[in-house]
């Protein structure tokens, strides 16, 4: 009976993984590597499966083994970059991404590089990378969202709102709506901020910051009952926010005085 080739095993392992059977995929790869220890395809696939399961260190070892055999494989470098970024090895990730760009420049790779620069906190380069993507692909909502956040951090709230509203027009995550809420709140559009924070909470029910900020803007609008409801939920999600809540309640124009800390905690459900 013919022994299965590495290609056969890769096909079977890929089918297993795509069917929701990562353990079977890993087992097949390991069996193949027991017979052909240096096969780059098997190392690559096993690295991908391990990475999908959160096994970062072994995934990195296997993708390195794959690249040692096929140093110009763009897909392997891209996976290696994602693994390195997960370990916060941003220099390593950027090195792999630059290699991919040299081998096979594609839009996806430039987005990965922008994400990596962003996560590394290299803001000037990240900003330029996102701007380049947004200029070429103006419908890239991730670029709009990131540029909006960076504009807000720079204090350019009007530009931030324009970009974040564009990003929110798609299937935006809670983070985009939260950032939009921040920008609107800073321009004292409390009603618009409340709408954005509610959307963030709808998408992420445990979003403590959005819940706390919703309380602040509702208080600014004079809706003290709504504000107290939001504060109670924020306190439940994050008890350490009590000091911020107490400060907001006593310092805003529409607030309440609490002479007894225990009474305030009880009113918040604590």
In short:
With 270 residues, the chain is mainly alpha-helical. 76% of the residues lie in helices and 0% in strands.
Structure description:
TPR repeats lie at residues 174-207, 208-241. It comes from Bradyrhizobium lablabi. The protein has helices at residues 6-18, 22-35, 40-52, 56-69, 74-86, 90-103, 107-119, 123-136, 141-153, 157-168, 174-186, 190-203, 208-220, 224-237, 242-251, 261-267. It has 270 residues and is mainly alpha-helical. The protein is elongated. It contains 16 helices and no strands.
Number of strands: 0
How many DSSP H or I helices? 16
Morphology call: elongated
Class computed from helices, strands and strand pairing: mainly alpha
Helix content estimate: over 70%
Major sheet: size, sense and barrel closure? none
Roughly what is the average pLDDT, rounded to an integer? 91
**Element order, helices and strands?**
HHHHHHHHHHHHHHHH
Keywords: Repeat, TPR repeat
Protein name: Tfp pilus assembly protein PilF
Organism: Bradyrhizobium lablabi
TPR repeats: 174-207, 208-241
